[in-house]
Amino acid sequence: MFRYIVKRVTAGTLVLGIVSAIVFSIFYILPSDPARLACGKSCTPELMQRIKVALEIDQPLQVQYGRFIKGIFVGRTYLKGSEAELQCGAPCLGYSYQTDQPVTSLLMDRLPATLSIAAGASVLWLLVGLSSGIVSALRRGTMIDKFSQGVALGAASLQIYFVGLILQFIFVDKLAWLPMPGYTSPFEYPLDWAKQMALPWITLAFLLSAIYSRLTRAGMIEVMSEDYVRTARAKGLSARDVNMKHVLRGAITPIVTVFGLDLGALLGGAVITEYVFNVPGLGKLSTEAVTNLDIPVVTGTVLFAAFFVITANIIVDLVYASLDPKVRLT
Questions:
Q1: pTM
Q2: How much is the mean pLDDT over the chain?
Q3: Distance from first CA to last CA of the chain, Å, rounded?
Q4: In sequence order, what are the residues at sequence separation of 6 or more whose Cβ sits closer than 8 angstroms to the Cβ of residue 254?
Q5: Which one of 16, 169, 253, 313 has the fewest beta carbons within 10 angstroms of its own beta carbon?
């Protein structure tokens, strides 16, 4: 198992290194003037010259990239030796010259809001999706099954911005049961945090649980016809043991895959959700950076999102290995 973990972590690190090289090339090598690109819309000649010196554009490309990677591990000092020296601690993903802040600081400021959305919503959509999928599979062909899958099909056809605005109109504007969505620290005001996060959680759970419900139902129905399931029933195992220990375990692998991808993408930034509910998260930061042409922040958010997606895939591989020991041999 240890060798399997090392193998997966090594592969993930290699992929992240390739992504960093591609991102660096797109934003700092391919443009004819990367300093002008990093300067943004509100650029001045003084800021342009400052960025050219800080980016060390006169250095060879391999030196520039090497210092970029070194900054991620040990930090970096921009404009070293001058009065305008800029310190960027590890992991340094660049420096936003438009806000005069390290990109890592901007990401850390926005990360708690995105984590709050992802954590609460993922728990809800898993509980609702798996529960409805299991009930539908065990009651296949009944009215419960038809109703559950009909709702799931309808939910899968909707969009976040439509459902989110409708729920906000009902529960905030009309009924006044919930406050306007936003972000409050869960450590200082946990009740306010839960109330402000409720609509994003419910919206994402309603839409994504539909996919998990259909996947769970289809997987369980397929596994129910397997020989080992019939053998378990013939040995006299209870229906609960057969369904939970054999059927659900055999059907859960595609659900784990989809969950890992969904959670990784959500942690990288729930752009539409954060804009609909005005939550200051990573998704909103990335779109603001694109709008303002703040290239260091765009680079940082892309690498941050890639890190979450790759980490989620590594965790999925480890869960696979615990569910099916044969996976460790591949």
A1: 0.82
A2: 83
A3: 12
A4: 215, 219
A5: 169
- What pLDDT score was predicted for residue 198? 92
Closest CA to 266 of 124, 91, 163, 168: 124
Tokens 């509980």 belong to residue? 127
Position 109 scores a pLDDT of: 92
> How many C-beta atoms surround the C-beta of residue 43 within 10 A?
17
Q: What residue segments make up the domains of the chain, in order of their start?
A: 17-103, 106-291
CATH class of 106-291: mainly alpha
pLDDT single digits (tens) 73-122: 888 887 676 666 777 888 888 888 778 888 899 999 999 999 999 989 99
**309, two tokens:** 């997606």
Identity at 320, one-letter amino acid code:
Y
Q: How far is CA 53 from the centre of its chain?
A: 35
